[in-house]
Amino acid sequence: MRIVAIILLIICILLIVILKRIKTAARDLARQADDMIGESTNQLLRNTEGIKLFVPMIDSVNGRIEELRNKARDAERMNREIRESLTEISHDLRTPLTAASGYTGMLKNMELTEDEKKRYIEAIEERFETSRNLVDQLFYYTRMESGALELQREETDIRRILTDMLAVFYSDFEKRGFEMQVDIDEAPLIVEGDSDAFKRIFSNIISNGLKHGEGSFKLSLRKETPDPKCRFEFSNRATNISKEDAGRLFDRYFTKDHVRSSSNTGLGLAIAKKLTEKMNGTCKAELVDEILVITIEFLLK
Q1: What backbone torsions phi and psi does residue 221 show, to the nearest 5 degrees?
Q2: pLDDT at residue 259 is higher than 50
Q3: In 3D, which of 243, 232, 238, 176 has the Cα closest to residue 213?
Q4: Higher-pLDDT residue of 203, 99
């Protein structure tokens, strides 16, 4: 009996010690949590007493803390980019709006001929269209970066979308005096993705070529073999950029003075690349003998 009593006493003492350690560890965890809430810190909860019972809980809480911190960092990055975007867009909007205001003042001159009035009105409309495009690109980029833009996943004939976009821009090519050389497979090319996103990708790349290209504009769309993918190549002469610049064309707000203009913030190509990658495609640009070549590839269904 005496031995049993001694064993029970030892067990009780051990339990008391363990409970004391658990109580101390719980207090320490509560203190750590209060410190983390009360001040900005990168610390995580620490199991200072080495209590195995608390390990799953501490790992779970620390995982959640890391997740929240990542979201906070992403939110801060987005806020910073939005502030930068607003600064950039306000600067870029000032030029066309100022010009439109100037033409509006000219229209008040009663001595203008009908041809002059028509020319000024067209200039005003062009400036406001430029402003609208700038705001549209910024809004779309912000939605895309924030995760608010949801892309559909459906089988789409990408060949048909591209030919439709070329038809939309046909008059613009004529106005610029660009010779358009097109080489497109006749068979449908089915890929999985969002048709509106494909339209914006092609629209932004074609618009960039029209604004900054020189001379002819070449476009090819081919099915790659033996790989089940299709390849787009948009190319036109571009003597105003270097090979290093070509690699940066997809950067948001690429601000090379001779590339960026009041009608182009650089968001168009950044959006095109991000949308392409979101639909599991690849997008790159390179300068070959003063010819800028933008290549896009998508997997075929």
Answers
A1: -140, 115
A2: no
A3: 238
A4: 203
